[in-house]
Design goal:
Order of helices and strands: EHHHHHEHEEHEHEHEH
Keywords: Amino-acid biosynthesis, Hydrolase, Methionine biosynthesis
Number of domains: 1
CATH topology: Rossmann fold
Number of helices: 10
GO molecular function, one term: 2-hydroxy-3-keto-5-methylthiopentenyl-1-phosphate phosphatase activity
Pathway: Amino-acid biosynthesis; L-methionine biosynthesis via salvage pathway; L-methionine from S-methyl-5-thio-alpha-D-ribose 1-phosphate: step 4/6
EC number: 3.1.3.87
Helix content: 40-55%
Number of strands: 7
CATH class: Alpha Beta
Distance between the termini: 21 Å
Protein name: 2-hydroxy-3-keto-5-methylthiopentenyl-1-phosphate phosphatase
Length: 219
């Protein structure tokens, strides 16, 4: 069993990229977000264009803003403890950016278990880099950070793969997973496409479900 968990809007209550764009972007960001959600443009194209609208000089201001406003979802620390006790590998696979994902997860998840996008602040505006691209089996070839490719890379045959997510960026991973925990937009898409899934509100819900599946006595 291996767990692959989204970050923005899943580990954190709100989507951090959306929060950044609302606070530091302009009306063009909203249109790009809608284009991504409606799948008119790829996730990679939309995210790249949104961050290109924000000056690199805003880096520390953005980090401070997220540290003040980002809220970790209830039960996440207990969920990590449960996975550690059960020796279930837990990976964060995030379409978010390294400069804030690492900072917000500091002390919770080792950086070696976090996969996210990279950022370059040497130019006038923020430039997004893509260290985890689509492999040859990806159906979309525009993911940016390709979650299905990472699942294929990090899993071995016979393992049960668990995906936890909330958004369009988790949809292709959900199609590949053995077990899906979904909320918000991902839940809607799973219902629409008849993808088996388990709705959740907090990470305590996920812990409770896995305890039942593993036959673990609740603490």
């Amino acid at each position: 069993m291996k767990i692959f968990c989204d970050f923005d809007g899943t580990v954190t209550v709100r989507d951090n990229i959306a929060s950044i764009m609302k606070q530091f972007g302009d009306e063009r960001c909203e249109q790009l977000k809608n284009d991504v959600l409606s799948q008119r443009i790829s996730i990679r194209e939309g995210v790249e264009k949104m961050f290109a609208l924000i000056p690199s000089a805003k880096k520390e201001e953005i980090i401070h803003y997220l540290q003040e406003t980002a809220e970790i979802c209830e039960g996440f620390a207990r969920f990590i403890a449960f996975a550690n006790v059960q020796r279930i590998p837990l990976y964060i696979i995030s379409g978010g950016m390294d400069f804030f994902v690492y900072r917000l997860l500091e002390g919770l998840i080792d950086e070696q278990d976090i996969y996210c996008n990279a950022t370059d602040f040497t130019s006038e505006s923020i430039h997004v880099q893509w260290p985890n691209p689509c492999d040859e089996y990806c159906a979309t070839q525009g993911c940016g950070l390709c979650k299905p490719s990472l699942i294929r890379k990090l899993s071995t045959e016979g393992e049960t793969t668990i995906v936890i997510g909330d958004s369009i960026t988790d949809l292709e991973a959900a199609k590949l997973a053995d077990v899906v925990f979904a909320r918000d937009y991902l839940q809607q898409k799973c219902e629409e496409l008849n993808i088996p899934h388990i709705p959740f509100s907090t990470f305590d819900d996920i812990t409770a479900e896995l305890q039942v599946r593993l036959g673990v006595t609740k603490q």
